[in-house]
Design brief:
Length: 142
């Protein structure tokens, strides 16, 4: 497990929590954890293996425990279970973050209110005009 892989897992969890409408502080904890790892000057992986992540500012007990599990076991139970709460096609929508104005909050609204769970669904609601009514902006379909 590399630091880059850990960062990717934490960022994915943050996105899923945001799509789920989870507490923003919880979502931010995962994003901050990813940022902390990216900027950590010492051997982060050794700190994780030694189960000493709570010594790092910004790592609470819950996040430290989950990252320790990821580093020592190669997977995190929480990360394995969370995607099951979403349709498989929802991950297609993560590719759309490069479209200006289409971030996690807008994707959540499209998913919740219009059932958008894939790029094909997004195209459908854009062509029908439903997306622009929901977001009050013109939909940028790929």
């Amino acid at each position: 497990m590399t630091c880059e892989e850990i960062i990717a897992v934490l960022e994915e969890i943050a996105l899923l929590l945001e799509l789920k409408g989870e507490n923003p502080f919880k979502t931010r904890a995962y994003r901050n954890g990813a940022d902390t790892i990216a900027n950590y000057g010492e051997d982060f992986l050794q700190k994780a293996r030694d189960n000493k992540l709570t010594e790092i500012k910004g790592f609470g007990e819950a996040l430290a425990t989950k990252v320790h599990q990821l580093v020592t076991e190669g997977e995190m139970e929480y990360h394995q279970k969370l995607p099951a709460e979403f349709p498989d096609t929802i991950f297609e929508l993560f590719q759309l973050f490069h479209i200006p104005g289409l971030g996690p909050k807008k994707i959540k609204a499209l998913h919740t209110h219009l059932g958008v769970a894939s790029i094909a669904d997004l195209k459908r609601v854009c062509e029908s005009g439903d997306a622009s009514q929901l977001t009050r902006t013109k939909c940028a379909c790929a």
